Structures are given as C-alpha cells and as structure tokens.
Amino acid sequence: MTPFAENTHAFVVRIWREPREISGAKPEWRGVIEHVPSGKRRYMNMLDEIVTFIALYAPDMQQNANTTNLSSEGTTKRRAGHRKRRSPKT
Fold first, then answer.
1. Other Cβ atoms within 10 Å of 53 Cβ, number
2. Is residue 86 in some structural domain?
3. Which of 14, 27, 47, 81 is least surrounded by CB atoms within 10 angstroms?
4. pLDDT per residue over 27-64, tens digit each?
5. Distance between CA atoms of residues 51 and 60, nearest Å
C-alpha cells in the first residue's frame, strides 16, 4: 500500500426519519455510519456520534467539529497524483 492509502479512511453515513409509536409524536432522525475498510458500524440518533466514530480512526484530528482544520482553502488543494474529477458532458 502507498502511504496515502495507508492513511486514508472511507466512511458511509446514512440517515433517515423514523416514525414514533406514540400517537402524535414527531418522527426521530436515526442513522448509521460505517467504516468501509473494516465494515464496523455504529447506529446513532445524534450527529455528534459521527465525529466520535471517525475519531476512533483518526485520533490525532481535533474532535470539535466547529474548529477542525478542514477549511475551504485546505480542501481545494490536491495532493500529487490526484486528479480533479470531471463532470459528465451532457
């Protein structure tokens, strides 16, 4: 594996609204996050749990979602060997 691949994690997040059994109660949001390489999953009902789960695989990242270093400037720079995806022509 390349160093980039060894230090990369992929996650799939699914969220949905679930009806309540209590008459007249508002539906609740539920979700699941999966770490793709390991297949491990965590079911959740709060968005903060997404950050907690990802932190298990990236312990040196800040856990406060409001102060992470994922600025728009940082996300526009590409690493060597990574090409920009092209939009399909219509």
1. 19
2. no
3. 81
4. 999 999 999 999 999 999 999 999 999 999 988 776 44
5. 13
